[in-house]
Amino acid sequence: MANDGQLMDKLVSLCKRRGFIFQSSEIYGGTGSVWDYGPLGVELQRNVKEAWWRAMVHERDDIEGLDAAILMHPRVWEASGHVAGFTDPLVDCKACKARFRADQLEESSCPRKPSKHPGEHGDCELTEPRLFNLMFKTFMGPVEDAAAVVYLRPETAQGSYVNFQNVLNSGRQRIPFGIAQIGKAFRNEITPGNFIFRTREFEQMEMQFFVEPGSDEEWFEYWKAKRMEWMHGLGLSPERLRFHEHGPNELAHYAKRAFDIQYEFPFGWSEFEGVHNRTDFDLRRHQEYSGKKLEYVDPVDRNKRYLPYVIETAIGVGRTVLAVLADAYHEEEVEGENRVVMRLHPRLAPTKVAVFPLVRKDDMPELAEKLQRELRAAGVPSFFDDSGSIGRRYRRQDEAGTPFGITVDGQSVADGTVTIRHRDTLRQDRIDATQTVAYVRDLIR
Ligand code: ATP
Cα(436)–Cα(352) distance, rounded to whole angstroms? Predict the structure, then answer.
């Protein structure tokens, strides 16, 4: 599938057609690399976040949730190293005016001659690399001066570090324990792109796990395995997932060890999630910059005090949505006709069940509407469709990734049974209409 530009184009157009993802401010010509999630996209995105929250918070007693603010004290970003070091090297081409990341020239192509890399075409005139800080700056309050500068956070992690003591004490936790957050982050990326893969505004799902120094390597292995397991649980193809260890040149300034989990996106293998051993770098720096003690005191042996090490798992919501969409996309032939089907895991699918009266008469619409009301009352996202041939209605739902379709036909009116069609296998079962809610609920759990 690598470098399948066609698949990417098909995905982008399906996303627009079916209401998953739209370009931001499209009627004004669009805003570069910013995307809006439409009616189906927002449901898919919520289901992804819910799956993460469930695995990382609700199913565990050693992780607490947090929702820290986007705007933080500016000193936070000095302590974290972002003001001084959150930079990418940027080069401009004076000939074609394009911008590139100096460390990614090999993966970029020259706009004038796409088969060549920037700098390789006779006309290219690349500048020397300049460092460019990726943080968005803005001003707090009415005066736009240096004293009022604040940043839009480039990661959620710092909110967890500065709240370490608050969560520890209020949650009555003991080490080892973690803090999980889902929230927006902003990076003024030099070369955003590949649809929702790299954007300037995005959402992260990050978890910081605080451990006793010395146990960090064991926990690092634990979280690597756990996170891969989670991805398999989303239904992603195992052969499109792999680990990539950061070599000495890739390691961030705070990291002792780091692994990316990569997914084979249509444009090639790329980072999807990072698992990092951040040592005590962050707590040490915040202790130093804030002047507040951030040590952990062992409740049993009060002489044992230390700054915990942090194992971080950091994944983007958008990248997860893109991987899920790319993995789900299938084209196949059914009874001599082509169909596009999104094989989304039922737990992630935006709409769980579509309800179709076979024709608009003979009490079928009323029975179908009654069924849909029951589904709605039970909190099962459903969709009612009575327009067009039944085949076309199935196709529309296949593209939306709806796992089940319920058809109300003449027999339903006579004996109270309906057919339920399974999106992937096309199997059709006839069940009692009164069993529908329980049947569907069982399959989407
Ligand atoms: P990359 O090397 O791709 O820039 P990174 O190593 O800087 O990513 P982290 O800082 O580890 O990324 O952020 C954790 C996760 O947040 C990434 O694995 C990715 O899923 C997501 N992420 C980071 N930057 C972006 C972005 N610009 N757009 C969308 N998601 C992002």
Answer: 12
